[in-house]
Amino acid sequence: MADTVLIEGLVVETVVGVYDWEREVTQDLVIDLEMAWDNRVPGRTDDVADALDYAAVSARVETCLQALRPQLLEHGAEVLAKALQDEFGITWLRLAIRKPGAVPTAQAVGVQIERGVR
Ligand SMILES: Nc1nc2c(c(=O)[nH]1)N=C([C@H](O)[C@@H](O)CO)CN2
């Protein structure tokens, strides 16, 4: 199954980072998600109950990262991927978390993981 549902450029403001000063402020993270889903069913029924609801997933991404307040992007990615797979029944996903401004000479830095079987 090659179908996916996409979320690109989702901005989440949270406490994140390894340095002391970073625990005192919020910073923006930018999330990209590609999630396997059989879109033939909602394509036929036109019913959001059959779809992977990108609005619901986006809301969960925000609550997860705001509650977690990770030090490392790697930890944020791992915990978020597991929560989304468990709660939405997503068999495979590719998740990127970027931290714009963390390295001033780079547009963004970040991590990308893939979890599950397509
Ligand atoms: N691989 C990683 N390297 C670094 C991270 C990270 O989350 N993963 N974080 C930092 C600091 O928090 C940095 O972003 C502050 O500017 C450094 N390296």
UniProtKB/TrEMBL annotation:
Query: Which domain of life does the protein's organism represent?
Result: Bacteria
User: Which positions fall inside the Dihydroneopterin aldolase/epimerase domain?
Assistant: 5-115
Database matches in InterPro entries:
Dihydroneopterin_aldolase, FolB_dom, GTP-CH-I_C/QueF
**What's the catalysed reaction?**
7,8-dihydroneopterin = 6-hydroxymethyl-7,8-dihydropterin + glycolaldehyde
- Keyword terms: Folate biosynthesis, Lyase
Q: Which residues does UniProt assign to the signal peptide?
A: none
Provide any one GO MF term from the record.
Answer: dihydroneopterin aldolase activity
**Pathway(s):** Cofactor biosynthesis; tetrahydrofolate biosynthesis; 2-amino-4-hydroxy-6-hydroxymethyl-7,8-dihydropteridine diphosphate from 7,8-dihydroneopterin triphosphate: step 3/4
The EC number(s) attached to this protein equal: 4.1.2.25
User: What's one Pfam family the UniProt record gives for this protein?
Assistant: FolB
Q: Report the family membership.
A: Belongs to the DHNA family.
Q: What does this protein do?
A: Catalyzes the conversion of 7,8-dihydroneopterin to 6-hydroxymethyl-7,8-dihydropterin.
Kindly provide the name given to this protein in its UniProt entry. 7,8-dihydroneopterin aldolase
Origin organism is Marinobacter adhaerens
